[in-house]
């Protein structure tokens, strides 16, 4: 299938021929649907805390955070293409929908208006105005969301990345240091660095902290091969193979490189204003406090199992009731230890109010257990789709992760993915049709073998910006 030149290209990409062959086989066979049993719900996989329990979790985290290493991990790759899709359609194709009307009528309410108006000449029409947002002017069409101005304040507007600095100081500071890691596209790193060089000293002085900011890019070794519609390798005009980024699931490699006791994960666009941030800060601490408690108890169970004096019934009860893993009949100590000795995540889940996104589900596993997973609609078979529609909660990407084992060593997170999950889509290159393959999503298949606990959190903790008009919502005004 591959020539000697192909093999050299594969090796230079950091891949192995057998991995690429497996990717091609995935195109041929397709990915199986998840073995979904039912949607998780309150009292059945989604924990609803009372005020007292939430307060206890906050206190636990606040008491212990000073002795922990904490990292805020923010996926921030890619241009804000979807955010401005409708604007491009108007400028390039004269397609005007209600969204453009809303934008133009409320243009002065956007936090980026003071920056924008200097690029809009007197007498400019609506197309000139919109063009100045996405093209020459603000040039938001080629910038990442993190560098888009989201919110206005008396002292000046803030871009999305700045709001993560503010959030980090509120809940992810340990010994006066806030570690934040952004995953970005190579072409955008310099833009982030220039902005942060200017802004970090401002927030350090305001909050009395020191920021330790780091960046990483998606590794070429996580790319996947593109194929023709007949599933043969797609070749570019020079005869070389075409490899494509494999989606945000590839970031499990970046996350695996993070050495910390606790890792908070939150998308770059899910931020709100100072006035509305209270619930976000509180529930980040709630989730972290719960993680510390569960992790500590899991470690006690592992040590007891290793030393041979564990009460197997008590351990099994903890696994089922607290870690939300349904055990098969006749479960032995070896299986219990295998389940306990995994990365753990506590995930906030918000009430389903019609927003797009995956949700919390019970799934069946090959080892006979049932566990909790976040599933996207594309992972669920058509006959199981009513389960998704009946889900009470959905995934806002609000995770707190424990990535160290009982001995304090980092888990190799690549070992806890489900390689049988993924996505295949139709794309094009230079006008030629091709098929592309994405790895399982970061919080979907890439974390499928983690211990997962779902917690009900207020909808006020979720304020994403998927399209530019979302910035007109109260959470961003």
Number of discrete helical segments? 14
How would you state the average pLDDT, rounded? 92
Report the biggest beta sheet as strand number plus sense, adding barrel if it closes: 11 strands, mixed
Given the helix and strand composition, which structural class is it? alpha/beta
Shape call: globular
**Strand-residue proportion:** 15-25%
**Percent helix:** 25-40%
| Poorly predicted segments | none
Rg: 23 Å
Give me the secondary-structure topology.
Elements: H1 4-12, H2 17-29, E1 36-39, E2 41-42, E3 45-47, H3 51-64, E4 70-75, H4 85-93, H5 98-105, H6 113-116, H7 126-134, E5 149-151, E6 158-159, H8 160-171, E7 173-174, E8 177-183, H9 189-207, E9 210-216, E10 224-225, E11 243-244, H10 252-256, E12 262-266, H11 278-307, H12 312-321, H13 333-340, E13 344-351, E14 359-364, E15 370-375, H14 385-389, E16 393-394, E17 398-402, E18 423-429, E19 432-438, E20 451-456
Parallel strand pairs: 2-3, 3-20, 4-8, 4-12, 8-9, 13-20
Antiparallel strand pairs: 1-14, 5-6, 7-8, 10-11, 12-17, 13-16, 13-17, 14-15, 18-19
Helix pairs in contact: 3-11, 4-7, 8-9, 11-13, 12-13
Descriptive overview:
- The protein contains 14 helices and 20 strands.
- The strands form 5 sheets. Strands 2, 3, 4, 7, 8, 9, 12, 13, 16, 17 and 20 form an 11-stranded mixed β-sheet that branches.
- The longest helix is centred in the middle third of the chain and has 30 residues, at 278-307.
- The radius of gyration is 23 Å and the shape is globular.
- It is α/β, with parallel strands linked by helices.
- 32% of the residues lie in helices and 19% in strands.
């Amino acid at each position: 299938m591959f020539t000697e030149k192909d093999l050299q290209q594969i090796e230079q990409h950091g891949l192995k021929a057998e991995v690429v062959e497996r990717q091609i086989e995935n195109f041929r066979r397709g990915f199986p649907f998840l073995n979904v049993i039912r949607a998780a719900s309150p009292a059945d996989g989604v924990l609803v805390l009372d005020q007292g329990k939430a307060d206890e979790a906050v206190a636990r985290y606040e008491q212990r955070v000073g002795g922990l290493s904490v990292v805020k991990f923010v996926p921030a790759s890619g241009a804000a293409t979807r955010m401005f899709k409708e604007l491009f359609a108007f400028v390039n194709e004269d397609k005007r929908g209600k969204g453009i009307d809303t934008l133009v009528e409320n243009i002065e309410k956007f936090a980026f208006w003071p920056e924008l108006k200097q690029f809009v000449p007197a007498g400019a029409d609506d197309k000139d105005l919109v063009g100045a947002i996405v093209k020459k002017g603000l040039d938001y069409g080629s910038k990442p969301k993190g560098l888009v101005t989201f919110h206005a304040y008396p002292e000046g507007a803030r871009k999305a990345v700045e709001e993560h600095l503010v959030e980090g100081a509120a809940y992810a500071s340990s010994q006066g240091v806030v570690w934040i890691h952004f995953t970005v596209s190579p072409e955008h790193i310099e833009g982030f660095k220039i902005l942060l060089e200017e802004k970090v000293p401002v927030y350090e002085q305001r909050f009395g902290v020191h920021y330790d900011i780091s960046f990483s890019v998606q590794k070429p070794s996580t790319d996947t091969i593109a194929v023709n519609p007949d599933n043969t390798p797609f070749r570019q005009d020079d005869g070389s193979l075409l490899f494509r980024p494999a989606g945000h699931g590839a970031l499990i490699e970046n996350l695996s490189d993070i050495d910390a006791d606790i890792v908070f994960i939150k998308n770059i666009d899910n931020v709100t204003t100072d006035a509305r941030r209270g619930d976000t800060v509180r529930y980040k601490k709630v989730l972290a406090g719960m993680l510390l408690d569960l992790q500590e108890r899991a470690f006690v169970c592992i040590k007891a199992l290793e030393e041979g004096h564990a009460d197997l019934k008590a351990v099994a009860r903890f696994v089922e009731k607290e870690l939300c893993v349904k055990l098969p009949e006749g479960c032995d100590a070896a299986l219990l230890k295998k389940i306990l000795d995994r990365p753990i995540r506590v995930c906030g889940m918000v009430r389903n109010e019609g927003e797009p996104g995956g949700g919390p589900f019970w799934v069946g596993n090959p080892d006979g257990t049932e566990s909790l997973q976040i599933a996207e609609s594309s992972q669920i078979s058509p006959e199981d789709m009513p389960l998704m529609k009946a889900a009470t909660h959905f995934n806002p990407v609000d995770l707190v992760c424990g990535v160290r084992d009982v001995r304090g060593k980092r888990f190799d997170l690549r070992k806890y993915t489900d390689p049988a999950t993924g996505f295949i889509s139709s794309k094009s290159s230079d006008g030629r049709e091709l098929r592309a393959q994405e790895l399982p999503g970061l919080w979907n298949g890439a974390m499928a073998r983690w211990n997962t606990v779902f917690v009900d959190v207020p909808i006020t903790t979720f304020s994403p910006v998927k399209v530019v008009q979302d910035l007109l919502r109260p959470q961003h005004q």
